[in-house]
Design a protein that fits this description.
alpha/beta, 4-stranded parallel beta sheet, globular, homodimer, 11 helices
Chain lengths: ~240, ~240
């Protein structure tokens, strides 16, 4: 996955932890493998499946002691059922977590904008999650997706021209707001790195931060914020893994 | 070690990597264990040794595939000989790397200021490394250490009042500059998180960034920047570990 997004996720894990001293933090093991096949290309039928490499990562994290798995890549969540079926450790679902937070942002939220990769858009991960919560998903059209969101994500992945990426995300969020979105989900982990200006014109729900809060909640209190059942996993130690 | 500093190190690894695409980055495995006994307390004779927990971490990193170990905690480097003797994978030496960069900052550098934990100060790690390069180390006196550096580090470790931590580090760097320091080493991985204002009045050498550059150099080109021999390790795969 994109290592800048992984570092951002790690910072959000730290920020989500109430700490009086260093030892109050949670042990974290991270397996950052930029060689995992591109998720969007796989979903578009243009490249190999990322599932074997992701399973390899989860096995390494499990071997290092992880009790809860967080995957800070929204697009990878298209493969969550396949991954979850293959392993005995819970994988948190950031798409569900972020959608729940967006739908509950205000009591009257009706329309939720979604910024994501082309792969996530294609699978309708967020659109389905929105409809399940009786809110209307608003996504970019194909041209806007390519010109705005995909370009911004590519710039962040290579650390290039972040101000330009920030302008592209601002433009995309403005389009969604003008179509009626009351909140916008930053549904690709590269996007929160450049969504500051967008957040000034429409509230941006940071899926990475939602995942971090849930991961810390799970290891500290045995709960991931109510977004899914807490019954499946017994936490034997306070550790979490990051793919 | 402090997880905020570890996340900062991970970001600096990303920043130190020239990348055209996601797959150009280096696989990274991180074992962030805030339960490692406090290094300064151990060095002051007030707490247990961190060596067993650090060795456990290195073994986990090795098990996950790490070929080069980086420990983004300067104080922990007091134990580097003990750790290195116990394992067959190279541990990069951030104290040597940062001191080399400080001494070479300009051809005429004579006095190098050092900001660190009380434990690092006590062991003279940086002072010895400076003298070995024929530059004069300038450290805070005991009162300044407690009032400025130690307080700032504690604030960063718990994520509290970072503006105050930044003022404390600015004051400490100013004291060292006024005593003749031409550059100042941020020789504790919490300090670069709050050394921005200090860097405006005297060049601050970021030991975390030095370690990140060396780690990326080692996995990409088999060199850690000349700060130590490259002969000891054969890199079988492009991976590095972070303790």
């Amino acid at each position: 996955m994109g290592p800048a997004a992984t570092a951002d996720f790690m910072q959000k894990l730290v920020a989500a932890t109430p700490a009086e001293r260093e030892s109050d933090y949670t042990p974290i093991v991270v397996w950052s493998n930029p060689g995992i096949p591109d998720r969007t290309r796989a979903l578009l039928g243009l490249g190999p499946s990322p599932v074997p490499a992701m399973l390899d990562g989860i096995v390494r994290l499990r071997g290092a002691g992880a009790d809860v798995i967080a995957i800070p890549c929204n697009t990878a969540h298209a493969y969550l059922p396949a991954l979850q079926a293959a392993i005995d450790v819970e994988i948190l679902n950031m798409v569900e977590l972020a959608t729940a937070e967006a739908a509950a942002f205000r009591p009257d939220v009706r329309r939720v904008g979604i910024l994501s990769t082309a792969g996530t858009r294609l699978t309708g991960l967020y659109a389905s999650a929105c409809r399940a919560r009786d809110v209307i998903p608003l996504e970019l059209d194909a041209d806007q997706q390519a010109q705005l969101s995909d370009r911004a994500i590519a710039l962040v992945k290579t650390g290039r021209d972040l101000p330009r990426a920030e302008r592209l995300i601002l433009e995309a969020a403005t389009l969604l707001r003008d179509r009626g979105a009351e909140v916008v989900i930053a549904g690709c982990t590269e996007i929160p790195l450049v969504s500051g200006r967008a957040d000034a014109i429409v509230p941006v729900i940071d899926a990475t931060a939602c995942l971090a809060k849930a991961a810390i909640g799970r290891v500290r209190h045995g709960t991931a914020g109510g977004a899914r059942s807490t019954e499946r996993v017994q936490l034997s130690t306070l550790k979490e893994g990051v793919l």
